[in-house]
Amino acid sequence: MPRMRTNGIDTYYEQQGAGPAIVFVHGAILDHSQWDPQVEALSEEYTTVVYDVRGHGRTGGSNRPRYSVELFADDLAALVEALDLDRPVVCGLSMGGCIAQVYAARHPDRVSGLVLAGTFTPELLDRSEWFQRSVLLRATVPPVRLLGYERVEKALVWLHERLSKGARGDYERIEEVRSSGPRMTTEEFAKVIRAVASFHETDLDLGAITAPTLVLYGENEPPFMRRHGPKLAAALPEVTLREIPGAGHASNLDDPAAFTGELRAFLADLA
Question: Of the chain's two ends, which shows fewer C-beta atoms within 10 Å, N or C?
């Protein structure tokens, strides 16, 4: 299994294909296999790189007492450098999209394109979003210690579905992805969740991102996430905003064909 020493950890990654490089960054509490449909579809034309973010999958945890999105972005920068990738497109979903934003803002000359799917900026746009992103996320840690994150996540999925019909998407696909890899420890879960819950504290200058950007949201995405689409469109110099019909939060799994089609069209425009 390929691993690369990056920023003090042994990062698990998979690289396939040939051509312009795309690095995929998965969402929280998942792993690199979230991107299997896109890798299968694109690796004949592109160099595809997937990896397990610190704390997840085969990369596993580290002895750092606290994580942050900035740390995850530093890990990504170290991986891109170690693999000697020439200005890859970076594609991230949810937490992965947060990581991709920070990476692209810090290293604008190392990115040829940016894909932000089902994600959000650091800014908290209203009190409801503050509650969901900061309070509710942190509140999951104690019950996870007692019940495990699978049960707690199912309860949250149920809640989101009641608040926004269709937001759960094809949740069974998420469960399939999770069942194929190593189980995350409770301590790593806590560090990852607190990193996402603290994203609003990140000093991120969206104006520093210069790469053409594709912003994707599922039609049934939680409303607070969709509200960040116009914000990104207003802040970035060259943005395409697209909706994946019928998809929930994990739009690349809910409708892989539609998601990959939008991604393929974006890549063709870059070329």
Answer: N
Residue 24's CATH number:
3.40.50.1820
CA–chain centroid gap for 14, Å, is 17
User: Would you put residue 19 in left (φ > 0), alpha (ψ -120 to 50) or beta?
Assistant: left
Domains in the chain: how many in total? 1
Decide if 104 contacts 111 (C-beta within 8 A): yes
- Phi, then psi, of 193 in degrees rounded to 5: -60, -40
- What's the whole-model pTM score? 0.92
Q: What is the mean pLDDT of residues 140-157?
A: 70
Q: Which residue has the tokens 């979903």?
A: 93
Q: Residue 100 pLDDT > 80, yes or no?
A: yes
Work out the average pLDDT over 173-188: 78
Q: Residue 142 — left, alpha, or beta (φ > 0 → left; ψ -120 to 50 → alpha)?
A: alpha
Residues forming beta bridges with residue 241, ordered by sequence position = 215
Element (H, E) at 84: none
The CA-atom distances, in angstroms, between 240 and each of 17, 217, 252, 269 are: 26, 11, 17, 11
Cα–Cα dist 130/9, whole Å: 32
Distance between CA atoms of 115 and 184, rounded to whole angstroms? Answer: 26
Q: Give the domain extent around 212.
A: 3-270
- Name the one residue in this structure whose structure tokens are 């939008």: 262
Lowest mean pLDDT among 74-88, 162-176, 254-268: 162-176
With DSSP H G I counted as helix, E B as strand and the rest as coil, what are the percentages for the chain, rounded to 5? 50, 15, 35
